[in-house]
Design goal:
The chain is of the alpha+beta class. It has one domain: Aminopeptidase (3-Layer(aba) Sandwich). Helix content is 28%, strand content 39%. The protein is built from four helices and eight strands, in the order βααββββαβαββ. Strands 1, 2, 3, 4, 5, 6, 7 and 8 form an eight-stranded mixed β-sheet that branches. Helix 3 crosses helix 4. The structure holds coenzyme A. The site of coenzyme A has 18 residues, from strand 5, helix 3 and helix 4.
Length: 157
């Protein structure tokens, strides 16, 4: 049984490790968003991905009134390595879609690195439509910024 819920306070270290948040300053900055999980907190709606009572990842939705049309949101998902490839990411996309559509959103999008095949497959299996490439989107150190594939689903799909 997969569900989205708020993180419990005991899961702070888990969430930091999952997201690669290290050091006191970075963890203190993350704390308000962690404490506000399970509800919108600023531009973010962070949830624990729960499988049989255990947090195995994080789902995130983002909306910024200054930069996006009302009713639209972007999402991201991260699972611990040992839980990947079992269909959980696809189900989480379905859960996020249901929850966001039920609370007034009509369009949800997400994008992923052109080399991230599992996330692309999850979008496709969940019925999200490929909309194109954001070229040179994500900084990649010494390399050129990576291209990202954009997917979305709307209430009218
Ligand atoms: C991306 C992620 C959320 C997807 O969730 P998931 O539970 O692993 O996804 P699913 O199991 O629903 O689907 C993954 C699909 O990719 C396929 N896949 C995985 N690795 C693959 C590879 N190297 N080549 C081809 N297909 C691959 C799986 O076989 C599966 O497809 P199938 O069901 O048709 O066989 C998860 O893998 C993850 O957390 N990865 C690390 C963080 C990340 O990349 N987040 C997204 C950032 S945009």
């Amino acid at each position: 049984m997969i569900s989205l819920r708020s993180f419990t306070s005991a899961e702070f270290d888990f969430a930091c490790k999952l997201k690669g948040i290290e050091g006191e300053a970075a963890q203190a900055k993350f704390r308000p968003r962690f404490d506000g999980s399970g509800r919108w907190e600023g531009h973010f709606y962070n949830s624990a991905i729960d499988v049989a009572g255990v947090a195995v990842g994080e789902a995130q939705a983002r909306y910024c009134a200054q930069a996006m049309p009302p009713g639209t949101a972007e999402v991201g998902i991260e699972l611990v390595a040992e839980m990947r490839g079992q269909g959980i990411g696809t189900q989480v996309l379905n859960l996020l879609k249901a929850e966001l559509f039920d609370t007034g959103f009509y369009r949800i999008s997400g994008s992923t690195d052109v080399i991230n095949i599992p996330m692309q497959r999850a979008f496709e299996k969940a019925g999200w439509k490929f909309e194109g490439i954001s070229r040179h989107l994500m900084p990649a150190g010494e390399d050129l910024p990576h291209d990202y594939r954009v997917y979305a689903i709307t209430k009218w799909d």
